[in-house]
């Protein structure tokens, strides 16, 4: 695994993880591999009772509190209590305030709810005061919650609860979760190795790139095209009013071909202008590889 150049992404991640260790892989047949089996099958404590599971699962405090207790906590939260004070006067509020409070609703027990758009229909979610917010985070880091990512944790909490700025707080919480940082592997594949560009001689390979748009010059130019000879790093620069393929083709012919001859190869970042039909035709006529 450590010597193979092309590995499946999963194996590459393992190879990266293991490369800091000096180790030797020894094959052992299953018949004599009992020592490890013994460790992995070491008996652990009794499984958690179903009752404990439901109790421990999610958001213990919020779910066990009575409506009065939640209402009392909502009123103690300055932001939420302000909404609760303003809501009965909804008709007399300014348009701006009405827009802000449009989605809030107080039920008959005096609890503040907010309408949350769900896939199929709108749903009323209880507004959680600041002092109870940390209990919701167990929906991410409880052993049974599975340390889901930002999006899934948000969706899970958002399906039942609401508090102002919740996406930002949840994202920050998940991002800084110590367990996630220490145990999770990055999901993006590692970057490939850099490949050196081999050049045989002078004027064999030219690089082309466009810079801009810049503020217009006195002659109405907005772009700069740069052609670089790969061996000597000699750069040819010209200002252009636009970045069209026709202008680039004229630069290639007038400033490169007419002065240095036709190079064997052009290297570009494969921008749209370089892949256009005009450029393709120009490169074909010059027998140059792009
Ligand atoms: Zn986590």
From TrEMBL:
InterPro entries: Integrase_cat-core, Integrase_H2C2, Retrovirus_Pol_polyprotein, RNaseH-like_sf, RNaseH_sf. One of its GO terms (biological process) is DNA integration. One of its GO terms (molecular function) is nucleic acid binding. Pfam families: Integrase_H2C2 (PF17921). This is RNA-directed DNA polymerase. Its EC number is 2.7.7.49. Residues 192-290 form the Integrase catalytic domain. Gene3D superfamilies: 1.10.340.70, Ribonuclease H-like superfamily/Ribonuclease H (3.30.420.10).
